[in-house]
Amino acid sequence: MKSLTEYLTYHVKTRRAFVNITSDVEKLVVKSKVQDGLCLVNAMHITASVFINDDEGGLHHDYEKWLEVLAPHEPIAQYDHNKTGEDNADAHLKRQIMGREVVIAITNGQLDFGTWEQIFYGEFDGRRPKKVLVKIIGE
Questions:
Q1: Residue of 134, 131, 108, 139 lying closest to 41 (CA atoms)
Q2: In the 8-state DSSP scheme, what is residue 71?
Q3: Which CATH class is domain 2-138?
Q4: What gap in Å lies between CA 75 and CA 72, rounded to an integer?
Q5: Which of 1, 23, 38, 77 is deepest in the core (most CB within 10 A)?
Q6: Which residues are CB-neighbours of 91 under 8 A, at least 6 positions away?
Q7: How far is residue 137 CA from its own chain's centroid?
Q8: How many CB atoms lie within 10 A of CB 41?
Q9: Which helix (H) or strand (E) holds 84?
C-alpha cells in the first residue's frame, strides 16, 4: 500500500471566498503514484470548508446569499460565541453547513469525478493562512 500526506496552505485576502483546489489535489495524486485508492481532502480550520460541486459563478453567488441568510455575519452581537471577543460565529456555522472534508476515489491514477465535479476550499473567516490536509492511500 502506498500513501502520501501533504498540507496545502491557502491565504484568502477576503473574509469569504470559494477557491477551486482541484488542480492542486490532482498534482498530489500524480505525485503519490496511487492507481487505485482514496483521496481525503479536509480543512484543518473550524471556519473553513472543503466540498465538491460545480465551478459555476452563479452557483457560488447563490451559496453566498444562502449562507448569509442562514448565518448572517451581522449583527455580531446576536451570537454568544462573539461575546468572547471574536466576530466569527457565523463562519463556524457556515463551515458546519458546507462540511469539513471530502473523499474522492482514485481510479487509474486519477480522481474519479462525476460530471462537472470539482473540489473547493470554502473560506468563511479569511485574511490569514489556513491549511488543508490531503491524504492519499491505495495501490
A1: 134
A2: S
A3: mainly beta
A4: 8
A5: 38
A6: 15, 47, 124, 125
A7: 20
A8: 27
A9: none
- Assigned C-alpha cell, 16: 469569504
- What Cα–Cα distance (Å) separates residue 76 from each residue in 4, 35, 90, 112? 41, 48, 9, 41
pLDDT, tens digit, 9 for 90 and up, residues 44-96: 999 999 999 999 999 999 999 999 999 999 999 999 999 999 999 999 999 99
How many residues are recorded in the chain?
Answer: 139
Q: Please answer whether residues 35 and 106 qualify as being in contact, where contact means their C-beta atoms are separated by less than 8 angstroms.
A: yes
The cell for 57 is 459563478
Contact 15, 71 (CB under 8 A): no
Q: What is the CA radius of gyration of the chain?
A: 16
C-alpha cell at 20: 477551486
Confidence (pLDDT) at 113 = 98
